[in-house]
Design a protein that fits this description.
This protein has 3 helices and 2 strands, in the order αβααβ. By secondary structure, it is α+β, with helices and mostly antiparallel strands.
Length: 107
């Protein structure tokens, strides 16, 4: 009976390890978000950011922009944030957690 337990445990560990390896091998570590045509949002990419106390969606979005995002409205920034983080609210960020923020690309 002890032999069967050991074999079962070893088999389970091997299956979990293979599964994790395959997931990591297929992922390149980036998250992409495709804007659907109905959303009318400008093109953007998702950037993971760890929140510090006092951070807001708008301040972080402004910090991570590589180009001028002045042409993007506040409404579009909030819509993009909520699309990337469906379970989070833009006005209720929790410090020391990681959220995805939109980095808008030039059109």
């Amino acid at each position: 009976m002890e032999f069967l337990r050991r074999i079962s445990l070893i088999t389970f560990i091997i299956l979990v390890a293979v599964s994790i390896f395959q997931d990591l091998a297929q992922s390149d570590g980036t998250n992409t978000f495709s804007n659907n045509e109905k959303s009318n949002l400008p093109p953007f990419e998702a950037v993971p950011v760890k929140i510090n106390p006092g951070d807001t969606v708008l301040s972080i979005t402004e910090e991570i922009q590589t180009t001028s995002a002045n042409s993007v409205s506040v409404e579009n920034i909030l819509k993009a944030f909520e699309a990337l983080n469906p379970t989070a609210y833009a006005n209720e960020l929790h410090a020391h957690e990681i959220y995805y923020f939109p980095r808008f690309q030039p059109e």
